[in-house]
Design goal:
mainly alpha; Hypothetical Protein Ta1238, Chain: A; two-stranded antiparallel sheet; two-stranded antiparallel ribbon; about 60% helix; globular
């Protein structure tokens, strides 16, 4: 079994996918690190949920967020090294999120008021995951503002994912969340 610790980060840097090192405080590290936080938060939501369909959806989203993190962590100059069949974030992933949102909202329209999250542990955790995904999106936009290469589908995916998590949180809260008027 390989060792867990490598000591390569002891100098305050971390490696990018396909080569190169950046400071652990770099914008790219913030962006992909925040997607990792979202993966963990979705795992917490999945552990709290008693709905098998939702648990399956959350596991799929966790796996997709690993792809988002890898996309952000990929050394832009080395993307050509991606193996055939290795996909980064694509418009198909974004379209799938849009279809899921549309299906959920068609089946149960959202209330037209601000929501105070916290109706139950699952919906509250989905709301925290949504806020973390929004932060990841802000970091991705910040990377673009710093003239760094970011796959435009990453930003779109994170934006749609936060929308989906909002809808899923409302869906699983039902009518029990208080409205802010």
């Amino acid at each position: 079994m390989p060792r867990i610790y490598t000591k390569t980060g002891d100098d305050g840097t971390t490696g990018l996918l396909y080569g190169g090192r950046v400071p652990k405080s770099d914008l790219v590290t913030e962006a992909y690190g925040t997607t990792d936080e979202a993966v963990a938060m979705l795992g917490l939501a999945r552990s709290l949920c008693d709905d098998e369909a939702l648990a399956g959806d959350l596991l799929t989203l966790q796996r997709e967020l690993f792809v988002v993190g890898a996309d952000l962590a990929c050394n832009p100059e080395e993307r050509k090294k991606l193996e055939p069949g290795v996909s980064l974030v694509s418009s198909k992933m974004v379209a799938r999120l849009e279809r899921r949102i549309d299906d959920l909202v068609t089946e149960r329209p959202l209330p037209e008021a601000f929501i105070v999250p916290g109706a139950n542990p699952t919906s509250a955790t989905l709301d925290v995951a949504r806020a973390v995904v929004r932060r990841a999106e802000r970091h991705a936009v910040e990377l673009e503002g710093a003239q760094r290469t970011v796959n435009p589908e990453v930003r779109r995916y994170l934006n749609r994912l936060s929308d989906l998590l909002f809808v899923l949180a409302r869906w699983h809260a039902g009518e029990s969340e208080p409205m802010s008027r």
